[in-house]
């Protein structure tokens, strides 16, 4: 627990640390990977290069500094961090590594301005934050392990089947090697995967693209030209091969109620949206399912969505938007006028997932159309960041 003097030091120095926080996080990751190279496998190199990981860390630290006097709100803000950590299997003994390297990065950036007293105060703040995250993550681990078919840590799954969904997206059905039951997940969640590629360990998380069934999970992965993990799935792994899975996680889950839904996806962003649609339709809700793709060749799950429409003709409206070609309801890009046209009239909830620029545009358009912030739901692939970030 911080002393009153440390509280005062944090309050006095927070603006300075905030001003330098981007630079601190830029120093932090290379320093940590140099001192502890084994932890590098937990981080996606592409997110490091883009700066997304650094921005996510900076945002979490700032949010906690601002909200720590309100524990309920602080826990809410940290919920996304907890979910990402659960999908990576983060453990308590990894937090001291982060604390050591974060304080070293602060010292390198601030130099003599970081007095021993200030350093001790910020170290105590980190210990407080780490303790809270460890507590919240342990609750999640325990809750999932107690579910029928649940587990803690890693569990080995084999690829039972694959299916090419579009030119770039392939689905993988995963069944446990121990042949036991598989715990249910919430539609919209993702799952952590550990891979061994050429002697190197990589961790990734992929959206679960189907409803829970107690026997298998399905993930659907876009082949990225520079993506080591996605290329490994597409080009190397076959039926019968195995991967390690961590517990499902994620906050993009369906809010209770009976209001209509506008579900919007771009590209591979359809993977969490599809099970949300299935769940909503099973609950008898009205759904507008709007998907944007480059063209017909890149439009995944088209037959699967058409089959849903046959089962729920009065509840489901499907709209396809392609940038090119004439095999869709609209040709061009999704814009505010199209959203206005298909937005349900009676106070809908809107869920949207896709590339960052796509989500930013959708979020802004929905706000301009009068959809309140608490009725706009989205989730990033990779580190969380402000929706406005390009």
UniProtKB/TrEMBL annotation:
Record flagged with keyword NADP: yes
- What EC number(s) does this enzyme carry? 1.14.12.17
Q: Which cofactor does it need?
A: heme b
- InterPro entries per record: Cbr1-like_FAD-bd_dom (IPR008333), FAD-bd_FR_type (IPR017927), FNR_nucleotide-bd (IPR039261), Globin (IPR000971), Globin-like_sf (IPR009050), Globin/Proto (IPR012292), OxRdtase_FAD/NAD-bd (IPR001433), Riboflavin_synthase-like_b-brl (IPR017938)
Q: What UniProt keywords apply to this chain's record, in alphabetical order? A: Detoxification, Heme, Iron, Metal-binding, NAD, NADP, Oxidoreductase, Oxygen transport, Transport
Q: Which GO terms describe its molecular function?
A: FAD binding; heme binding; metal ion binding; nitric oxide dioxygenase NAD(P)H activity; oxygen binding; oxygen carrier activity
Question: Which segments constitute the Globin domain?
Answer: 1-138
User: What reactions does this protein catalyze?
Assistant: 2 nitric oxide + NADH + 2 O2 = 2 nitrate + NAD(+) + H(+); 2 nitric oxide + NADPH + 2 O2 = 2 nitrate + NADP(+) + H(+)
Q: Pfam families this protein is in?
A: FAD_binding_6, Globin, NAD_binding_1
Is Zinc tagged as a keyword?
no
Gene Ontology BP terms: cellular response to nitrosative stress; nitric oxide catabolic process; response to toxic substance
What residues does the FAD-binding FR-type domain cover?
152-255
Tell me the Gene3D superfamilies matching this sequence. Globins, Nucleotide-binding domain of ferredoxin-NADP reductase (FNR) module, Translation factors
- What EC class does the entry list? oxidoreductase
SUPFAM superfamilies per record: Ferredoxin reductase-like, C-terminal NADP-linked domain, Globin-like, Riboflavin synthase domain-like
What's the stated role of this polypeptide? Is involved in NO detoxification in an aerobic process, termed nitric oxide dioxygenase (NOD) reaction that utilizes O(2) and NAD(P)H to convert NO to nitrate, which protects the bacterium from various noxious nitrogen compounds. Therefore, plays a central role in the inducible response to nitrosative stress.
**Entry's PANTHER family?**
FLAVOHEMOPROTEIN
Q: Hey, which family's this protein in?
A: In the C-terminal section; belongs to the flavoprotein pyridine nucleotide cytochrome reductase family.
Name-wise, this protein is: nitric oxide dioxygenase
What is the species of this protein? Billgrantia tianxiuensis
Biological classification of the source: Bacteria, Pseudomonadati, Pseudomonadota, Gammaproteobacteria, Oceanospirillales
